[in-house]
Amino acid sequence: MLSLSCEELGGAGCSYVGRGRTPAEVKDALFTHAAKAHPDKLKKMTAKQKADMVKMMDQLLAKKARKK
Hints:
Blueprint: E1 2-5, E2 17-20, H1 23-37, H2 39-44, H3 47-67
């Protein structure tokens, strides 16, 4: 099971952890969470900022996979 926390992505003080069997499931869980818990921040993000966040998620998930 893969996991990534909102806090790891800059969500200071947010304890949510997205989990899934694949990186896509984790990213979907985090964006669903962001839409519900942080809609103001998500709405203010540009397409580039969202793409950069996805890239960061991929990098963090890859780094965690290498540690296993």
